[in-house]
Design a protein that fits this description.
ATP binding, Dna Ligase, domain 1, 14 helices, 20 strands, Rossmann fold, globular, about 30% helix, alpha+beta, PRibGlycinamide_synth_C-dom, 5-stranded antiparallel beta sheet, ATP-binding, single chain, about 425 residues
Length: about 425
């Protein structure tokens, strides 16, 4: 990873000269007389931000994070449990009972799709995150599209294929540009926006012939290309009710000026002007609420965060659903968590209990932004094991800066090193 240079610090300081730290947290509920031990599952920037927000909750006793990362451990935001096998439901249940955990927050999608929530809820442990059946909204794009068809949720026209020849014939009929998607989880890399027929056919071969995405790509969705502006929309769901979170927007291309390949996210900001109050109401009524009611009707009630990737169509100005994620987005989670003023523990417990109806969230009136520092070569083949320097200096460069870690570890000398692609995150917040 590149050293966090004085030039970057100077630039960051100029960006946030008028920043302030977030105000004190306000609590939305009186049900916080007994403090709660919370376990966060995951070890990325999203989980670091969640630990940071949970620790600030008045009703939080302590935060544990499994496996966590070096930055989470050193920040004091949580105690990291690096040896807990988070895909082993019995091990997680045993740990929760031993430590008196009264709320589990599952960060990444993979444990959700694998059914960790099912096991924890069956054991009587309140868990924020959907069941495996409801997590299919992200785990299978085909499932999500069928739900849209059945419950009249606006989305791009599509067809699903397992045979490459018929997929290519459909592509030829539709023409380019066109979008090719792997059905399953592909770490954010299973989508090709093909501007030519050749690109589209190559994407089909990559998934269905070469098997580049394994089982995730054994079925592909070919869908129409939507022109407009993308937007991220987040809602908390308790199985029957949903409440919107504040708006946020991320930037996915790796290079300055929106250039280069897509990544998991190189930065984000909140609020996002594209999500107006009018648009928020339309999205809730036409996309989020029908999804909540639809999953409930299908026997797989959704509890957790619905993260809708939207396209605001250029022609109509109306939103269409591109895809669902079933957890907080990253890096959007980071800018949302630093703006949240409500007691996050109580909010998430309310979702687990089916008690979100009538609940309102308090947010800082300021803005927040995050810029990702990534290893050389990311998102392709990137350097590993390089030392990350000047992190303490960065946090002190101006008021209101917080460094969130993803993909970091300690070396033998106790220095931070990069073991993943995108490793450290900063935010600024101002009135």
């Amino acid at each position: 990873m590149d050293v966090l240079s004085k030039q970057f610090l100077s630039h960051l300081g100029q960006e946030i000269t008028n920043s302030e730290s977030s105000p004190s947290i306000s609590v939305d509920t009186n049900n916080n007389s007994q403090k709660v031990t919370v376990l966060v599952i995951g070890g990325g920037g999203r989980e670091h931000a969640l630990c940071h927000a949970l620790q600030r909750s008045p009703s939080c006793e302590t935060v544990l994070c499994a496996p966590g990362n070096a930055g989470i451990a050193s920040s004091g935001n949580a105690t990291c449990i690096s040896d807990l096998e988070v895909y082993d439901g019995a091990a997680v249940i045993s740990f929760c009972r031993k430590m008196g955990v009264r709320l589990v927050v599952v960060g990444p999608e993979a444990p959700l799709v694998a059914g960790l929530t099912n096991e924890l809820v069956k054991a009587g442990i309140p868990t924020f995150g959907p069941s495996a059946e409801a997590a299919a909204l992200e785990g299978s794009k085909n499932f999500m599209k069928h739900l849209c068809d059945k419950y009249d949720i606006p989305t791009a026209k599509y067809k699903t294929f397992t045979d490459p020849s018929t997929a290519k014939q459909y592509i030829q009929e539709q023409g380019a540009p066109i979008v090719i998607k792997a059905d399953g989880l592909a770490a954010g890399k299973g989508v090709t926006v093909a501007m030519t027929l050749e690109e589209a056919n190559e994407a089909v071969d990559s998934m269905l012939v070469k098997g580049d995405f394994g089982s995730a790509g054994c079925r592909v969705i070919v869908e129409e290309f939507l022109e407009g502006e993308e937007a991220s929309f987040f809602a908390l769901v308790d199985g029957e009710n949903a409440i919107p979170l504040e708006s946020a927007q991320d930037h996915k291309r790796v290079g300055d000026g929106d250039t280069g390949p897509n990544t998991g996210g190189m930065g984000a900001y909140s609020p996002a002007p594209i999500i107006t109050k009018e648009l928020q109401s339309i999205v809730m009524d036409s996309i989020i609420i029908p999804t909540v009611k639809g999953t409930s009707a299908e026997g797989c009630k959704f509890v957790g965060v619905l993260y809708a990737g939207l396209m605001i169509e250029k022609k109509s100005g109306m939103p269409k659903l591109i895809e669902y994620n079933v957890r907080f987005g990253d890096p959007e989670c980071q800018v949302l968590m630093v703006r949240l003023e409500s007691d996050l523990v109580q909010v998430l417990l309310s979702a687990c209990r089916g008690e979100l109806s009538g609940l309102s969230l308090n947010w800082s009136p300021g803005s927040a932004m995050v810029v990702v520092m990534a290893s050389n070569g990311y998102p392709g083949s990137y350097e590993k094991g390089t030392v990350i320097e000047n992190l303490q200096e960065a946090e002190l460069a101006a008021p209101g800066i917080k460094i969130f870690h993803a993909g970091t570890a300690f070396d033998s000398e106790g220095k931070f090193i990069a073991i993943g692609g995108a490793c450290s995150w900063g935010y600024s917040q101002g009135k």
